[in-house]
Amino acid sequence: MIAEAIHTATAIGWAIVAWIVLTSAAACLALYAVVVTVATPIRAACRALTAALAAWRALTALAEHPDRYKPRQRPLWAAA
Q1: Cα dihedral sign for 63, 65, 66, 69?
Q2: How far is CA 25 from the centre of its chain?
């Protein structure tokens, strides 16, 4: 009778351990999915914002020094 009680307690203990392990694995997987789902659009938005900021800086630099970015003109005597 005592052996059966010990066996039952051991079986229940292992079942609880398995339940805790599987529940934590499922929670980790769900958390990972949420992090990836949120991080991907944020990363894309940051890259787009960086590109827009770089383009804006280039345009303001062009507006501040318009002569600096003009292409070289050919001399009049070299007209084809």
Answers
A1: negative
A2: 22
Which residues, at least 6 apart from 32, have a Cβ–Cβ distance to it below 8 Å? none
Q: Which of 54, 72, 74 is nearest to 62 (CA)?
A: 54
d(CA 59, CA 52): 11
Say what the pTM is. 0.57
CA 1 – CA 4 distance, rounded (Å): 5
52 with 46: CB under 8 angstroms?
A: no
pLDDT (tens digit, 0 to 9) for every residue of the chain, 80 residues total?
A: 888 999 999 999 999 999 999 999 999 999 999 999 999 999 999 999 999 999 999 888 877 776 766 777 777 777 66
CA angle 10, 16, 20 (to 5 degrees): 145
Three-point CA angle 6, 14, 28, nearest 5°: 160
